[in-house]
Amino acid sequence: MTTGVHSIEFVVRRRPGLKVDEIVPILDGRSLLDLIDRFEIDSGMKPAGGAYGGLIPAYLRHKSFDEHFLGAPFPGLSPKTAVLSCECGEVGCWPLMTRIIPTGSLVVWDAFEQIYRETRDYTKFGPFLFDRTQYDQALQALCAQITTTEDP
């Protein structure tokens, strides 16, 4: 992907193999799961491909998702923000972390890392720049969808 401005949406879908919903970021119409899998495979990383899953709202009740996706650090793991969890559903098991920097006109995702593989080089993955207005609208849609999904 280029470093121009990207579009983002947050899709809530049923996690394959589990009976819970997950949040998967979609960048320019492509799943972040697919993008990171392709990057890791092309970079010769092992394990690579299929190790990640979306974030499971039922497992992340410690903060709101608008705070989370605006760069709130993940307690106990990293000063960065988890944007994907492990394929098992647990963020602490195998997270993809990134620094999220909101500004007046942009939101930037950069400095990706896999915290359990410190020697991996993700410098060529991203940065991803998002128009702040479009990003905020995507977050509002996500929060509305999560609230609706959780209502009895």
Written overview of the protein:
The chain is of the alpha+beta class and about 150 residues long. The chain has one domain. It contains three helices and nine strands; from the N terminus they run ββββαβαββββα. It has a six-stranded mixed sheet with strand order 1-9-8-7-6-5. The radius of gyration is 14 Å and the shape is globular. The model has no long low-confidence stretch (mean pLDDT about 90).
Helix and strand pattern:
EEEEHEHEEEEH
* Strand order, sheet with most strands: 1-9-8-7-6-5
* Terminus-to-terminus distance: 40 Å
Radius of gyration: 14 Å
Low-confidence spans: none
Tally of structural domains: 1
Helix content: 10-25%
SS strand fraction: 25-35%
Instruction: Please give the count of helices.
Output: 3
Largest sheet: 6 strands, mixed
Helix-and-strand structural type = alpha+beta
Mean pLDDT: 89
Shape from CA axes? globular
Number of strands: 9
